[in-house]
């Protein structure tokens, strides 16, 4: 029997998804080891913490850590999945939308807000209700729905007073409803797609918040939009979040280290096997 190919799974912790990836790995000739992304100390030309792995599966949940680790690992000659370029793009919502829009992939109308004056201009340009969200961040954290103009500036007070300068960079965009479509992509393949709806007292439809979900068919418009994202970022493992609008789907954001429990539950898709097979093909 041939030896299993070593793969480093870079993450701050082992959650449900990581456990399944590690369990499925031997079926595809792989051995996946957890590499704690808080204890790498990269920068040495030989990068001893990551040498010996045929590739790194980067699943850091930090919105800055993954891209930095992937950049230094690639510089040390260790390939990463996703690539450093793709991870850096996904970590910055404003930069990602600029890349996608330039390539003709539809994204929501939005304004970059770096100051109170920017915020005032966004309020004047866009109709209420509006969503205020951080450029750097995920899991639905610090995403705020602004329904009324008379409370908008009070909301922005919290951005100014409680966030550090790096975290104050925000996007303002129209509220596009209480549902979104999460697409799980492996390589270039749309493995599963599910619709998430906000429920209870929480208006956000983020999969990480445990909202209602259901599988949806692979709509040609969904597939076309997802293909456009992969054309820009390159093949990889992505969670692509879409909003449906009267003019078609728009890309809300792309997660470079997607949780996939909710999509797997809704669709029955064997996502760990799809990822294991894809890594196996890359290493062949």
UniProtKB/TrEMBL annotation:
Molecular-function GO terms, alphabetical: ligase activity
Name used for this protein in its record: RimK family alpha-L-glutamate ligase
Ranges where the ATP-grasp domain occurs: 97-280
Segment forming the signal sequence: none
Domain of life: Bacteria
Claim: Nucleotide-binding is one of the keywords in the record: yes
InterPro entries in UniProt: ATP-grasp, ATP-grasp_RimK-type, ATP_grasp_subdomain_1, LysX/ArgX_preATP_grasp, PreATP-grasp_dom_sf, Rp_bS6_RimK/Lys_biosynth_LsyX
PROSITE patterns recorded: ATP_GRASP
Cited NCBIfam families: rimK_fam (TIGR00768)
Keywords associated with the record: ATP-binding, Ligase, Metal-binding, Nucleotide-binding
């Amino acid at each position: 029997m041939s030896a299993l190919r070593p793969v480093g799974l870079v993450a701050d912790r082992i959650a449900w998804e990581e456990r399944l990836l590690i369990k499925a790995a031997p079926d595809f000739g792989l051995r996946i080891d957890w590499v704690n992304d808080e204890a790498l100390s990269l920068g040495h030309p030989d990068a001893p913490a990551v040498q010996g792995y045929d590739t790194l599966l980067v699943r850091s949940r930090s919105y800055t850590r993954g891209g930095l680790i992937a950049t230094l690992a690639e510089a040390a000659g260790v390939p990463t999945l996703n690539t450093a370029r793709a991870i850096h793009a996904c970590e910055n919502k404003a930069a990602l939308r600029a890349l996608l829009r330039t390539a003709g992939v539809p994204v929501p109308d939005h304004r970059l807000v770096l100051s109170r004056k920017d915020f005032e201009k966004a309020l004047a340009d866009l109709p209420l209700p509006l969503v205020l969200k951080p450029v750097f961040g995920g899991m639905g954290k610090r995403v705020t729905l602004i329904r009324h103009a008379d409370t908008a500036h009070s909301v922005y007070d919290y951005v100014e007073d409680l966030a550090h300068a790096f975290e104050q960079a925000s996007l303002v965009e129209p509220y596009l409803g209480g549902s979104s479509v999460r697409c799980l992509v492996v390589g270039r393949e749309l493995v599963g797609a599910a619709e998430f709806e906000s429920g209870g007292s929480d208006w956000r439809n983020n999969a990480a918040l445990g909202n209602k979900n259901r599988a949806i068919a692979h709509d040609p418009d969904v597939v076309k939009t997802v293909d456009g994202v992969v054309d820009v970022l390159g093949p990889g493992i992505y969670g692509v979040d879409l909003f449906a609008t009267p003019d078609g789907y728009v890309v809300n954001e792309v997660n470079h280290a997607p949780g996939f429990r909710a999509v797997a539950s809704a669709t029955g898709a064997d996502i760990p096997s799809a990822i294991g097979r894809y890594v196996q093909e890359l290493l062949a």
